[in-house]
Amino acid sequence: MIVRILTEGQLEVADDRVEALNALDAAVEQAVEAGDHEAFADALAALLEGVRSSGSPLPADVLHDSDLILPPADATLEEVREMLGDEGLIPG
Asked: Is 88 helix (H, G, I), strand (E, B) or coil?
């Protein structure tokens, strides 16, 4: 799966990592729903680090359609609230 982190680029993440990333995504979603800015910042940082550590960066000169688009590390709770779908940032 190809994941884009806005302002950073694309990473290829193996499908078997999606379940672990969904747990991190759930923490982001819970913090957004609670309006807890501190928990949100920690959860978003953990999610993005999880994607970075489990993915392989794609060359900047190669552009693929992204399966998922994640917010940048400096996104606000309100910005992420607008991005959330029924299944969080990472469906599945």
From this structure: strand
3-state SS class at 9:
strand
**Token representation of residue 48:** 């993005």
The two structure tokens encoding residue 55: 């993915």
DSSP reduced 3-state for 48: helix
Whole-number Å distance between alpha carbons of 31 and 27: 6
Q: Are strands 55-57 and 9-13 parallel, antiparallel or unpaired?
A: antiparallel
What are the pLDDT digits (tens) for 40-72? 999 999 999 999 999 999 998 888 899 999 999
pTM of the model: 0.91
Q: pLDDT per residue over 6-46, tens digit each?
A: 999 999 999 999 889 999 999 999 999 999 999 999 999 99
* CA separation, residue 12 to residues 23, 33, 44, 62 (Å): 19, 29, 19, 12
